[in-house]
Specification:
mainly beta, Ferric Hydroxamate Uptake Protein, Chain A, domain 1, 25-stranded antiparallel beta sheet, Immunoglobulin-like, 10 helices, about 1000 residues
Amino acid sequence: MRTKTLKRNRFRYLCFLIAFIGFSSFAQNTVTGVVKSSGDELPLMGVNVIEEGTTNGVVTNMNGEYSIDVAQDAVLLFSYLGFEEQEIEINGRSTVDITMVNNLETLDDVVVVGYGTQRKSDLTGAVSVLDADEVQKVSNSDVSQLLQGRTAGVTVTADGQPGAGANVRIRGVSTFGDSQPLYIVDGVPVGTSIRDFNPNDIETIQVLKDASAGAIYGSRAANGVVIITTKQGTKNTPLQIQYSGYYGIDEVAQRIPVLGREDYQMISNEKRMNAGQPLIPGNDPSSDLYVDNIDTDWQSVGLKSGSRQNHNIGLSGGGENITYNASLDYFKNEGVFVGNGPDYERYSGRINTVMEKGRFKISPSLYYTHSFENSLTFRGDVLTGGRPPLINDLVNAIPTLGVYDPENEGGYAGTSSEIHQEIVLNVPGINSLFTNNVEVDRIFAIINPEFKIIDNEDHQLTYKLNTSYDKTHVRSFSFVPEFEMGYFFGSGKSLLDDNSAIYTVGLVENTLNYNTSLGQHTFDIVLGQTFQKNTTVLRSAHSEDLPKPYYPVLSNGVNQTVGGQEIESSLASYFGRLNYNFDDRYLLTATVRRDGSSRFKEENRWGTFPSLALGWRINNEEFFNVSEDVVSNLKLRASYGELGNQNIGDYLYQAVINRNIPYNFNLDRVLGGLQTSVVSEDIVWETTTSLDIGLDATLFSRKIDVTLDYYERETVDILVGVPIPWSTGSVNVNPLVNAGSIRNSGFEAEVTYHHNNSEDFNFDLSANVSTINNEVLALGGNQEPISGAGSRTQVGREVGEHFGFVYDGIFQTQAEIDEHAFQPGAAPGDVRFRDLSGDGEINADDRTFLGSALPSVTYGLNFTANYKRFDFTLFTSGAAGYYINSRLYRSLMLSTGYINAHEDILNRWTPENTDTDIPRVVADDPNGNARDSNRPGWLQKGDYLRINTISLGYSLPEDLFGNSLNSLRVYGTVQNLHTFQYYKGYNPDFNSGILEPGFDNGTYPRPRTFMLGVDVSF
């Protein structure tokens, strides 16, 4: 009996023990803790905390805190970019605080370069890495505008028009054609425009500036390369949802001071009287047509408050074998012009996935964007007479013209030949009547499987197939109704143009990447082959006289015409690169690429582009006895190589045949063919040779990073239009030949200071500065100079240097005129020009170079700080050492003409006001006071400093929201707060032509923006 009882009790104890063990295994335990970083002991936000073997996970909050329910015997995985991953066994604990250790290899910045990655410490070329988080604090429709002021050697010019592209130049002007850099998105070349892509998708941005860095892109890298990598998911991370959005108001803070009605009429009358001409009736108080009841402020009428908004939703996460990152984005920018534009609206969506299993990996991605742009109206066939941009027309408009006139077709007023006798444009009217928009749909897909053929500790060999498909549909729509707007502007019939374009780019790349370490020797070898085909299909359609009420479709009109063309080009390439590292002290990069382009005839189709770069990590030498706390990195590097440019247009080497030339044979009319243009069949690559010597240093416990570079870039075989006689019969009297040569040289410096040893207050301060010296070495032919708007490009000088007469004061008396060199039409009050030739006459021989049109110095300064839950950003940029020729200011200061005038003209010379540098006003300007010269105001200093961004944010405590939110940040931003400038126009950093870089034809004002935004993560 006792034995049975004992056995029964033992059985109960055994069952209890088994149950206890099972319960202990499966019982849930809440684990909390704080995660800090080693070195500064500051809390880390966003650390992934995952229960091993499950998808159960959380991320740390702003204070580095986490809380997770896990099994008693769970193992927690802690991972965070830049730190070593840690596995921690819980062992029943409820509190686990850890300190994450810096992963020096990751902190040393793994940089994306062409067809691979490198540690930044191993780079031998000039590569700048931009902080994607910082550039995304700026609101822009175009990713390329985010580069402004962020890194040395990169200049960005753009106006404030919604949807407008930026002009990006890396290390100066090196061609007379397309000077934009090549953009690479997720390993795929996307050309020289990046506007369709969503800035919120960006993970990293690298700028390759020298031959060593860019040579692997060969024929397309002469203008630099910008590599953009989009966001990816993270392994073993639960779904994370992020929303970011802002809304902002745009205002034109700067107004050009022009005359009101009374001053305008006074100046206009003085011009006529000084020329001995009768007064214009609308300005003559004695005339029945005198205007005294209209005083229009056109800038107030034509400019309004604009707006901008952006909403982005991101989804990311991943398991053991797959990660994903998806985004949906909406951006809209309504411009500050009254009327139908300019506005820009874009919808976009992206999904990136990475799937891995064993040695196989594939990373498909798909991006789609739809944009709609109401462009700023301009029709050269309607607004004839060489009209300036609409912003100039708006400011030039006379105050004696009203806005509306119900008697005119369309309802808007225009100038009268009888009353005003001046041709000015009613800009709000034109911009309201005309419709001009562009609609774009783009799909961009990548599939890039890769397989590790060899994968062991000492050797890795990986094959990768990179394929992409990029297709863009563009519809351009323009409609002009019947309208009448004065004696110069009007159309008696409606006009409709409905055009389309389809751009298709297909890419196939095969690469082999071999890595091995043999003792102190490390080799990284890349071999590849690539083929890219571009197809463009253009279609145009025109229709007229559509009936009212208007329904603008082509079939509703008459005189219907159509046109179209199809253009194809292809590029085949082979490339290889060797990265060699000996003992982490001596570095070598050797690259060669051979490209064949259909844009050249068969004999000239192929070009080879090699480069060689060396690096020396001095701090790793035994003789370098400086403490690592003082110098943790000191690297000297040098590179030399060749880069190419094939962005020259298609079929330029082929002659054009006109098939409709009439001939007469025995009095019979016969149509035949004839070559009507002379071309050079022997055009070849534009080739840039680049020398770069640089120094990288990290100092004082990684608190200071310094990068210094000296560079020289010489481009030869630049395509130049060389003049030929009209007698050749060619319709092209400036055929392109490889005749030009340009050299750019300069210094670059980037310095960053990190203050991160305080628990409450930390900041980063970074500055960059670059200089440039530009010189034209050859222009071909007889080295004839090339003229632009007030500029000249000449051998031995800069590209597009200002050119004209030299100002020598104002004539005060007729005696001064008589004693001076003969200057036809001069009278007291006119500009005196210097007789440089000494021939006693002011003529074209007295023109000379008047100053640089290219900034000699550009710079940027970025300050970011965190104080407890507050964050602050201040970003500024600027340029110096150049002059601007402003079409707008000069038109407002003309001695002749009857458009409105700048207030400066009130200080003109008169017999009572002789102490001035502004000449008299006189109709027809007999002295040529308005000619290109350096008279005050005609060339203005372009030096400026812009406060681009001021932003203040606050992250709310997480415990306010329980478990519903991971973080919530609100912020306010002011963009383009103020520009300190001498220039009397809108933007001192305007877009311009290559051959006239200092000529501001008229740019849309860059607005000041006030934004409120929020960042939320779930």
